[in-house]
Amino acid sequence: MNSTISVSEFDSGNIRRVKKVQEFLDKNELDMSPDIEVFVTIKDEDDMIACGGLAGKVLKCIAVDNNRRGQGLILKVVTHLLNAALVRDRKELFLFSTPKNIEFFRDCGFRLIEECDDEIILMENTKNLESYQKKLTSLKKDGDVIGTIVMNANPFTLGHRYLVEEASKRSDWLHLFVVREDASEFKFADRIELIKKGISNLKNVTLHEGSDYIISKATFPTYFIKDKGQVNELHAKLDLNVFRNQLASFLGITHRFVGTEPYCKVTNNYNKNMKKILEDPSGKTAPIEVVEIDRIEFAEQPISASRVRALLKENNYEELESIVPPSTYEFLMKGVQDDK
Amino acid sequence: MINSAHAGTLESSDVYIQINPIEEDIVEIELHSSVAELYDDMIEELIRDTLKEMGVTGINVHVQDKGALDFVIKARLQAAVFRACGTVPSWEEQS
Amino acid sequence: MMKFRRSMLFVPGANTAMVCNAFVYKPDTVMFDLEDSVALSEKDSARLMVYHALQHFTYKDIETAVRVNPLDSVFGHLDLQAVIRGGADIIRLPKTDTVDDVLDMQSAIEKIEKEIGRTKKTKLLAAIESAEGVVNAVQIARCSDRLMGIALGAEDYVRDLRTQRTKEGTELTAARAQILLAARAAKIQAFDSVFPDVRDKEGFIREVEHVRGLGFDGKSLVNPNQISILHDIYAPSEKEIDWAYEVVEAAAHAEKNGLGVVSLDGKMVDAPIIARAEFTLELAIASGLIGEEDE
User: Fold this and answer.
1) A3 and C198: CB-CB below 8 Å?
2) Which of B3, B6, B10, B20 best probes binding to A when mutated, by most A CB atoms within 10 angstroms?
3) β-sheet bridge partners, residue A259
4) Number of CB pairs < 8 Å for A and B?
5) pLDDT per residue over C156-165, tens digit each?
6) Do B34 and A75 lie within an 8 Å CB cutoff?
7) pLDDT tens column, A174-202
8) Which tens digits make up the pLDDT trace of C189-216?
9) CATH, domain B5-89, list 3.40.50.2000, 3.30.230.10, 3.40.1010.20, 3.30.43.10
10) Chain C environment of A1 (Cβ under 8 Å)
11) For residue C84, what are the contacts with CB-CB under 8 A and spacing of at least 6?
């Protein structure tokens, strides 16, 4: 029996203790995730022998010392992380880890969503993916070219509208997904409403509310802190694999449309990965062709949501009006009025 | 029952039980076992009996079994129910 | 027959695998712990677990003790309610400084026993873990007929003495001597503390040999693997067994022939010596050295 073993739980404010977790993860060749709120560590006397973290509804950074494997420590860590999640009323959980731990987590009630490059796994403790896939299947449309776009639209600009119109023209049917996570300047409800208004003239488009499985904090946590340039390549690949294998195949998607990305290195890199992963003929589901559409410009500058946000800050409403649809402009001006 | 609660661990020989109040006046059981399915019916019966003893309905019970003995399942379920009700056992009423 | 308590295995009440499996290791007494080894958030769950374990058939043939939380904590009375009802043979008092600590526990137990109509008296084991407790050990040992023994709790004791534990254990000399004397004078058992380093097998052996030599009846353990080592050390030697056989045989012979005095090798054998010989044979049986039919 291990009378010398102790478990502790602490939040990210405990800088000294977090630093020790960081060192332990380094030793075990795992990355620390910057969004962890609650840490669980197991120590044998003064030595850390296992750890894990909870970020939102995601369990991650779970590690056990190499010399202490096979002692059920991973189960102790997951138990404490689960307790931490449940007391915060988070019941529907995800888990990031490495493939060697799949069986342990299965025995803890988690199901595999996707495995990527033999390096990373994403699991969930619900059957939500299954029901989501059923729902997608019911929305499937026939056609030779079934297109898709995933957008955050923060907020919806003429650039977005051009992309959607082009994609709609080139597709028999277009599935448009809106990133659901409320981690941007504009709320999801507003973002999707503006898209709906902005594309009301298009008849072959299904507008989908995003989910935990499309660019969410669960599948792609570092996307939401991309300004800090910390996008994890592995997470990006995982997100794309989930998209191809777990979602697109249920809608019969053949093409994914993206705007070209001349400035943002992070997004540009994501687009490159997108081509590689979605078009890979050796994948387990049908490949998806990635179509890049050039961004339209105004005053010799590409139109982007970040430009809209900048103009808002500068109170440059004149230029703003010329790069967003009337519905978006109206919404933004109402916001300006309300602020005053 | 008013609140959600949980008890137990995911470690070997133990069981992790989550309970949630539900609208209907029934007992809903979701059982996951890492051991043989052979015992599923027995575990379910044990859970129903224990809840009946405690006079609890309108409950969803999520069970992650790691090969727990009967008394372990009973102890963890009781602990979860008492936690959900924010009470301790009134031993005086039992024997 | 005298109850052997060479090994008292501590089983954390929150460690389900241990609670379920402790009986397998065949300690003389299983001691479920609801106190120090259980985190505050798990006190309620561990209490229920131990309550049910006590009633499980696997613990029917093995003596059970429970270390409860202090009565002045929010958990103490709840623990007691549960484990007396569960049928614990022994309650281990968490920290015994004075006679009143024992008497308070005794009356709390009596009250519950009365409520449930339990006729078999729950026994008490007082853990002496402070200088005050050691000084009062003589009175403590004699204060209740429920007390089956007193035990040294070394970790808290050395802290109270402002020292720390060493491999040699010299810091425990006074406490061990006092506890043993107090127990023997009161005709109850004396138990030594847990050996702190689970990895140090040789140190453990040395300590067990030492406390057995002092006269302790047994020792608390946290590691099941230590049980057989401890039992081997407590086993009587071949010479002792041989002597015990002769004494018992001589006594039986004398009784059969109506002789008032038993003698062996020209020396008189009185009742305490016969009792000692019988104890040795029982210990030999418990140690697996002889079968019961050999007696």
Assistant:
1) yes
2) B10
3) A293
4) 35
5) 999 999 999 9
6) no
7) 999 999 988 778 999 999 999 999 999 99
8) 999 999 988 889 999 999 999 999 999 9
9) 3.30.230.10
10) 12, 15, 18, 198, 222-224
11) C91, C109, C112, C113, C116, C118, C122
